[in-house]
Amino acid sequence: MIVVHETADDATIWEEINYEKNTYEDAFVHAFVDGNNIIVISNTDHEAWGAGYPANGRAVQFEQIEVTGASNFTKEILNAAYFTAYMMKKYGLIPSLAQSNGTGTLWSHHNVSQYLGGTDHTDPDGYWYNRASTYFRTTYTMSNFCQLVSLYYNTL
After folding, report:
1. 0.90 cut: is pTM over it?
2. In 3D, which of 1, 2, 8 has the Cα closest to residue 121?
3. Separation of alpha carbons 67 and 11, rounded Å
4. What's the CA angle centered on 8, arms 21 and 78, to 5 degrees?
5. CA distances (Å), origin 132, targets 17, 60, 87, 88, 155
6. 3-state secondary structure the chain
7. How many other CB atoms sit within 10 Å of the CB of residue 93?
8. How far are the Cα atoms of 74, 76, 93, 99, 154 from residue 13, in angstroms, in the given order?
9. Cβ distance 88 to 145 under 8 Å?
């Protein structure tokens, strides 16, 4: 599975990476994404611990940085979808949304909280809602993201 996170603060991608390097024993993801970068900081074959058990042992996990501006948000979502599709191809996964029975290949941290437990986070729901509403007067959901991931997936 792939788990999508967001950082919930206004630090830069490099500040987030440095923070995680210093606190990796508490939480750790494989990659960070913003409007200009996809930075993999750990081998995705290694376990990450950003979403709680049992997701940690079976997921590639990445953090989105909270960006500002419609263009930056759009580019970040595109980068996140590309990275997700690329990882799904790498691991032989087909894009499908998380389900309450534990199936699905695309999970938000909120989905992990809802369906698997071990955590109580709700990201990236609030971040996506806020940015999509502010910049585009619409919503953006995991369903929308899965459609975009599928588009990238089919071109790889």
Report:
1. yes
2. 8
3. 9
4. 90
5. 25, 25, 25, 25, 25
6. CEEEEECCCCCCHHHHHHHHHHCCCCCECCEEECCCCEEECCCCCCCCECCCCCCHHHCEEEEECCCCCHHHHHHHHHHHHHHHHHHHHHCCCCCCECCCCCCCCEEEHHHHHHHCCCCCCCCCHHHHHHHHHHHHCCCCCHHHHHHHHHHHHHHC
7. 18
8. 16, 12, 27, 30, 28
9. no
Query: How far is it, in rounded angstroms, from Cα 145 to Cα 84?
Result: 10
CA 149 to chain centre: 12
Token pair recorded at residue 16:
């987030």
- Specify the amino acid at residue 36: N
Per-residue pLDDT tens digits for 41-50: 999 999 999 9
The model's pLDDT over 50-68, given as tens digits with 9 standing for 90+, comes to: 999 999 989 999 999 999 9
Which residues fall within 8 angstroms of residue 28, CB to CB, at 6 or more apart?
20, 42, 48, 49, 50
**What is the C-alpha to C-alpha distance for residues 98 and 58, in angstroms, rounded to an integer?**
13
